[in-house]
Design brief:
The protein has 3 domains: 195 residues, P-loop containing nucleotide triphosphate hydrolases (Rossmann fold, 3-Layer(aba) Sandwich); 137 residues, no CATH class; 106 residues, Orthogonal Bundle (Helicase, Ruva Protein, domain 3), CATH 1.10.8.60. β6 and β7 form a beta hairpin. It has 20 helices and 11 strands. Helix content is 52%, strand content 12%. With 466 residues, it is α/β, with parallel strands linked by helices. The two termini are 40 Å apart. The longest helix is centred in the N-terminal third of the chain and has 21 residues. The radius of gyration is 30 Å and the shape is flat. α5 crosses α11 and α19 crosses α20. Bound molecules: adenosine-5'-triphosphate and magnesium ion. Adenosine-5'-triphosphate binds next to α4.
Length: 466
């Protein structure tokens, strides 16, 4: 995944996003540059700073969509965050540095999952042993005897020393092997066993605390509270053998992963190839000398500066340098311009790409071409009711044309218009689907015209409905 060529990245994006070629190109180059930089020898590598990008374009033309799809295409740590989040409630909302912490957290989880995957085989073997121990307490795994079974079956003298002879070891291990074969063949899958599962779910209270920005003080609330709670509490659960294998393997895998190593690696990865997608950056512009929210918006921009420029952010896992993190910002800049951002911040985003407005022909393609195209979604939804719906070409054209008209006449909300239109168009069908006898339905131009006539004739109505 990490070494997709720019053309391949664009190709992947093309599967979901129509048009916007320039934007796709520049993010593809930026992504490839992450990879290129990693190949350069260390001395020069330090000198190569990322070229941050701003995507500018009207609302609903695919900016956020590009970010979402990009995230799946890269092996680099990728985190998308709305800049407006930092201006919410309170005076500045969440502290800006938290985006680096979140990026790191995400990377750690990703690497952890990958490591766990790598030790799956071993973990499974260990889980198998534990289950055999449960099923055959006396056979002893790896030559050691289970504590609990001693108490039950062995006689222990006062000194605590064990004085009991195991039954013929050979016979026991033979049974064990037999059982192992049955286990592997899945013949024990439906048997019930009691296992101890550790209660990992931390209480929701801890979660709430950990999100209130306490981290900036270097206090790790979650861990602190966690350690005050009864730790490692476990409870017995009765599950089938098949489930037990899964649960225990999971548990063993967690134990096998070296978290220190994972954390180190994650920090390195974030510092060297991290990408942060700052969505809605236009929402943090504020007029000079403005009052109220404007002040905090500019505050957010100022807070953002050092991070974008390169500084060290303290996290609970250690300091993270942001010098080489790539930032891709995006915003509609409806009522304002990129030049309304404070100049220092503007300068940190040297590459500007404009996205195009969408018109009828784009809408036709958006409705039908992407892998997750809107029409395909509705067809799939209605198929669950046993209905086969098809859209004729002229119907699609009519919908697309109408979307463009409404966008022109009221407000241009880009491809989002298609969503509101489609809902309105199919409302009756979606409501009645379970009861409709006619299971095959072709939606043609006449149907579209009929359904949309009322809103088409009455502009005010369309303002409300669509
Ligand atoms: N070029 C496109 N190709 C395919 N689908 C698109 C395109 N543009 C927009 N869409 C669809 O429209 C919806 C809204 O797009 P998106 O969230 O990317 O808008 P945006 O550009 O981020 O707008 P905003 O500035 O309001 O955040 C998406 O769910 C997507 O399905
Ligand atoms: Mg968006």
């Amino acid at each position: 995944m990490s070494d997709l060529k720019p053309s391949q990245i664009v190709e992947e994006l093309d599967k979901y996003i129509i048009g916007q070629h320039n934007a796709k190109r520049s993010v593809a180059i930026a992504l490839r540059n992450r990879w290129r930089r990693r190949q350069v020898d260390p001395e020069l590598r330090e000198e190569i700073a990322p070229k941050n990008i701003i995507l500018i374009g009207p609302t609903g033309v695919g900016k956020t969509e590009i970010a979402r799809r990009l995230a799946n295409l890269t092996d680099s740590p990728f985190y998308k965050v709305e800049a407006s989040k930092f201006t919410e409630v309170g005076y500045i909302g969440r502290d800006v540095e938290s985006m680096i912490r979140d990026l790191l957290e995400l990377t750690i989880n990703m690497l952890k999952a990958r490591e766990q995957e790598a030790v799956q085989g071993k973990a499974r073997e260990m889980a198998e042993e534990r289950i055999l121990d449960l099923l055959l307490p006396d056979s002893g795994s790896r030559g050691t005897r289970q504590q609990s079974s001693q108490a039950e079956t062995g006689s222990t003298d006062d000194s605590g020393l064990e004085v009991y002879e195991p039954e013929k070891p050979a016979a026991a291990s033979e049974t064990r092997e037999k059982l192992r074969r049955m286990l592997r063949d899945g013949r024990l899958d439906n048997r019930q066993v009691d296992i101890d599962v550790s209660d990992r779910s931390s209480s929701p209270m801890v979660e709430i605390f950990s999100n209130t920005g306490m981290e900036e003080m270097g206090i790790n609330f979650k861990d602190m509270l966690g350690s005050m709670m009864p730790r490692g509490s476990s409870r017995k659960r009765r599950v089938t053998v098949a489930e037990a294998v899964e649960i225990l393997a999971q548990e063993e895998a967690q134990g096998l992963v070296d978290m220190d190593k994972v954390t180190q690696e994650a920090i390195e990865k974030v510092e060297q190839s991290g990408i942060i997608f700052l969505d809605e950056i236009d929402k943090i512009t504020g007029k000079e000398g403005g009052q109220g929210p404007d002040v905090s918006r500019e505050g957010v921009q100022r807070d953002m500066l050092p991070i974008v420029e390169g500084s060290t952010v303290n996290t609970k896992h250690g300091p993270v340098k942001t010098d080489h993190v790539l930032f891709i910002a995006s915003g509609a800049f409806h009522t304002n311009k990129p030049s309304d951002l404070i100049p220092e911040l503007q300068g940190r985003f040297p590459i500007r790409v404009e996205l195009d407005s969408l018109y009828k022909n784009d809408f036709i393609r958006i409705l039908t071409e992407p892998k997750n195209a809107l029409l395909l979604q509705y067809i799939a939804l209605l198929r669950t009711e046993g209905m086969e719906v098809a859209f004729s070409d002229d119907a699609v054209e009519e919908i697309a044309g109408f979307a463009e008209t409404v966008n022109n006449q009221t407000e241009n909300i880009g491809a989002r218009r298609l969503h509101t239109l489609m809902e309105h168009l199919l409302e009756d069908i979606l409501f009645d689907a379970p009861d409709i006898d006619q299971k095959k339905l072709e939606i043609d131009r006449a149907f579209v015209e009929e359904r949309l006539r009322d809103v088409k004739e009455d502009q005010d109505l369309s303002r409300y409905i669509l």
